[in-house]
Every structure is written in structure tokens, then in C-alpha cells.
């Protein structure tokens, strides 16, 4: 059986490949069909233009992030456009809170600028400004629709739900005061509280499945990014030798015979996932052929705590010298 391709490349802009998720076409089809039901072909065309305007707004929002990120030397190979929004896949997320703040704010800012500019063109709002006929083929109506799209997109993204923009802003602000990992953890917990409230509301106001799918997607994304941050913050830059604890029994202790030996110079992040699944294990560690102690998984946490302090101290001194 041929594997289904979920996304297709559309074009390149500023060297970034823009991919369209196949479900976007489903949404387009559904919307055009509804437009056709309402006002025949004029309605279908209005729906089509409306979706293209929304799609462009999403793309410009993502470009706001990407072009700001580029000023920090961060590349974006790909932007994926989905019915629930866009996703800029950057090579990495900056650890510096100020950089993350600027990159993140740039997205919603684009939406507010678009809304503001259209507002000036469309003119002063009258009493019926917020009344929009969804499938009316009329420039004024489509402009108003785009204003509403952009205001909604900008505001929704600012909800403090990590890893959405608002959640990233919260993490960056917390990271200015607290440890980076703690900041990420608080942001992830906050997101989960908001998601539970959001899903409850979505269920109460009729079964809004797209909304629930969106929240599930954000929950999974947030948890994955938190785990990634946790891993990097805990283990990156450390070696096996950094978490060795002394072992009085020596290398021939029968307690060690079931565990493979490790070299002190090996990077910790490669083995950490394995250690985390073994609550009680003793790996003999050798340096230059000499037994220097064990990695005791039960005591890994406290050994790690000390090792991290030394590493972070070294990073601080490095920065001071730079
Ligand atoms: Zn964004």
C-alpha cells in the first residue's frame, strides 16, 4: 500500500518552503459547499476567497515569527499550513528569553497590523460593523471578514497556552526570573489548566470537535516540548563521568557483574533515557582503563543536581569572560 502524503509543497518564500496540509483542502471544500448552499456559485466563490484570505493571514503571521527569528540566526526550513493554523518549523527555539519574546510577539503583531490597516481602508465602523455575512461576494464584507480573522487569530494565539504564542511569552517572562526548566514546567501546567477549561467550554457550547482536536494537539505539542527541554536542561553538556558516585566494593564487586561498563567520557544525554527506565542499576564506570565508581540510577537525581550546578557555573563564567 502506498503511504499517504499528508502535506504538499506549495511554494518557497524567503527561502522557506511552504507546505499545505491535505486537511486544509477538506476545509476549503466544505466551506465552498456551504457557500454554494447559501448563494450558489457567488457564495462558493466568496467562501473560496475568504479561506484564501485567512490562509494568507496565517502565512503572514508565521512569516512574522520566521523573519524575526532570522535576525537571531535561526533558520526556518518549513512552514506547515493546517486548518487549525500554521506551524513554523525552526531549527531551534532560542534559549534567551528576550529573543523568544521578540520572535513570539512578531506573529500576533502581524495580525494586529493587518487588522489595523484594513480598518483604516474600510473606514470607521458603523453599528453593523461586526455583522458579517459569511458567504457574501462583496469587497467590503470580505475586508471585514479578514479583520475579524486577524483579530481572532492574534488574540487566540496570545492565550497563555504553551506552546502557543501566549504560552511562549509566559515561559520567556518566567525564564527571566526562574530557572529555564522550571519556567517551562510552569508554562506547561498553566497550559493544561487552560486546555481543561477550554475543552469543558467547547463541550458545553455544543460539540465543537475542531476546537477539541486543536486543544488535544496543543496539549501533546506542549508535553513533547517540555520533555525535550527537560532532557536538554538536565543532560546536555554532561558526561557519564559527571554523575559517577564512589563504590567501596571495587570493580570486582559481584553486585556490578550484571551491568555493562561505561566510559566516563561518553555524553550523558545518549544514556540518560536508558537510565530513567532503570530505577535500580549500578553501571561500573572506567576512565583511561581505571575503575572510578558507578552510575547508581537510584542516586542519579542527586548526582545530577551537583553536576548541573557545576555545569551552569561554568557556563556563567564563560559568559562573563566573553
Ligand atoms: Zn504564532
From TrEMBL:
Query: Which keywords fit this entry according to its UniProt record?
Result: CBS domain, Cell membrane, Hydrolase, Membrane, Metal-binding, Metalloprotease, Protease, Repeat, Transmembrane, Transmembrane helix, Zinc
- Give residues annotated as binding Zn(2+): 61, 65, 165
Residues covered by the Peptidase M50 domain: 51-122, 137-197
Which superkingdom is the protein from? Bacteria
| CDD domains listed in its UniProt record | S2P-M50_SpoIVFB_CBS (cd06164)
Question: What cofactor is this protein dependent on?
Answer: Zn(2+)
GO terms assigned for molecular function: metal ion binding; metallopeptidase activity
Recorded hits in Pfam families, A to Z, give: Peptidase_M50
Q: How does it sit in the membrane?
A: Multi-pass membrane protein
- One cellular component GO annotation, for this chain's record? plasma membrane
Report TM segments: 12-33, 39-60, 103-122, 142-162, 183-203
Q: Among the record's GO biological process terms, what is one?
A: proteolysis
The annotation note on the cofactor reads:
Binds 1 zinc ion per subunit.
Instruction: Give the residues annotated as active site.
Output: 62
Where does it live in the cell?
A: Cell membrane
Its main subcellular localisation, reduced to a broad class, is: membrane
Family classification: Belongs to the peptidase M50B family.
* Name of the protein: Site-2 protease family protein
* Organism expressing this protein natively: Rubellicoccus peritrichatus
